[in-house]
């Protein structure tokens, strides 16, 4: 895949589908990423976030009673740490309008289900790259892009 060592990342995955959580867990294990907290609801995620500060949150869009998009909006409104944490939204709906709604709501990236190890690995590496950019190195206009895959 790449020279990146992602094993030190601290990640939270929020998805109400046990099947999807298993898939994502298998992908992370294949990448050597083991510091992952898997939760099945936004309520459980909120409880965990009281004492956990993940480097990245990955959340499903369609969950009940609170979906991943509203979860993202809530976190962004809190400000501070939660206004900056990268959030990847997983969805089976990648229509342009929905992707734009997600981006406008504060997600960092949108990934189409089913997600592959290659795509997830690339996105995590990209997030690590963006996180390591100095505040003195502004991103060029158009450099940030959304790749649905």
Automatic annotation (TrEMBL):
InterPro entries membership: Bact_response_regulator (IPR050595), CheY-like_superfamily (IPR011006), Sig_transdc_resp-reg_receiver (IPR001789)
Domain of life, source organism: Bacteria
UniProt xrefs under SUPFAM superfamilies: CheY-like (SSF52172)
Family matches, as Pfam families: Response_reg
Residues bearing PTM 4-aspartylphosphate: 60
Gene3D superfamilies on file: 3.40.50.2300
Response regulatory domain residues: 10-128
Protein name (database record): Response regulator
Organism: Kiloniella antarctica
């Amino acid at each position: 895949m790449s020279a990146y060592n992602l094993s030190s990342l601290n990640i939270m995955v929020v998805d109400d589908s046990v099947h999807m959580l298993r898939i994502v867990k298998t992908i992370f294990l294949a990448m050597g990423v083991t510091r992952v907290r898997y939760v099945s609801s936004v309520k459980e995620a909120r409880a965990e976030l009281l004492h956990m500060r993940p480097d990245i949150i990955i959340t499903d869009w369609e969950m009940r009673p609170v979906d991943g998009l509203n979860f993202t909006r809530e976190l962004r409104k809190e400000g501070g740490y939660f206004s900056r944490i990268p959030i990847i939204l997983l969805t089976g709906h990648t229509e342009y309008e929905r992707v734009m709604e997600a981006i406008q709501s504060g997600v960092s990236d949108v990934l189409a289900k089913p997600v592959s190890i290659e795509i997830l690995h690339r996105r995590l590496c990209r997030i690590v790259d963006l996180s390591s950019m100095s505040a003195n190195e502004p991103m060029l206009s158009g450099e940030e892009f959304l790749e649905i895959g």
